[in-house]
Amino acid sequence: MILYNKQCCKKMHVCATLCPMISAARGTRPVLNILPKFQREPGGLSDHCYLGLMSVRVPSMSVLPPVRRDRIIAQLPQFYSKKAAVHTKDEFNSKVKTACQEQRTGTVGFRIAKVIVVGDLAVGKTCLINRFCKDAFDKNYKATIGVDFEMERFEVLGVPFSLQLWDTAGQERFKCIASTYYRGAQTIVIVFDVNDVASLGHARQWLEDALKENDPTNVQLFLVGTKKDLSSPAQYSQIEQDAIELAEEIKAEYWALSSLTGENVREFFFRIASLAFEANVLAELEKSGSRHIGDVIKINSNSNNVYATSKKKQSNCCQ
Ligand SMILES: Nc1nc2c(ncn2[C@@H]2O[C@H](COP(=O)(O)OP(=O)(O)OP(=O)(O)O)[C@@H](O)[C@H]2O)c(=O)[nH]1
Ligand SMILES: [Mg+2]
Asked: What is the ipTM of this complex?
């Protein structure tokens, strides 16, 4: 069943064919195929979904459940490999820690960082997200059609922070639909199967496609090898060398994990959440810092010039 959602929902299953057309036409969120999921969702019901003349109530994002106790991050989770890490510091940036202690994190506590997960078909993208979000693993392959997403709420250094995890289709025929959801990503996760060297070879193409829709200077990249449980140590170490080399080259952080056993899955998502949070707080501090610098100039300037300065600023701003 295809539903149209008026506002944000926690969980969406996006219809592969109609979604881009209808959401573009209506200028809001995509068409959803969510009714069976929401029937299983606990909690209150609020906003409306529309199916032609039919109206269905679905849970609203405005009624957020509290952050789960096992989603609280008090220390910076460590990288997987020192050779390929976004950074190798042991702790959160000291400016970030102080800002959190002093509750000077601005709007970061309300933000949702978009994470897109891309990679070849059947490399294990859906299983990876499901292992973390639902602690479940399905050994049967069910191709993702278009895109799907999960919300995960964290508390980092006492500040709420959410990740929106976009699971995209790897199958070629769904790729053009999935790629319409790449825009606005703060984190790009490129997934390959550690037992399939071709899937690592395609990582560069996945990155290129994802970067077409995003500002390369503003995204954090992760290269993730899945299905580690299926490879022998000798096989694994061979592909790891190539993967780390590629990760270094594209400036991605490298991880290897298994959704079947759960090895490294939690650590990986905690690392993503922490680094995205840290980047958000630093950007917020920089923004508020530059505002302060502006204020100082105003105060110190000749009072006759204050109006002229602010007028000049306004006209620049509108250009
Ligand atoms: N042994 C093992 N199998 C896995 C692991 N992760 C995924 N699989 C299996 O690999 C197959 C594909 O997994 P999916 O997560 O559906 O793959 P996908 O990347 O989402 O595929 P698309 O949606 O088509 O792009 C399924 O049969 C999974 O059970 C893993 O860590 N270990
Ligand atoms: Mg999938």
From this structure: 0.99
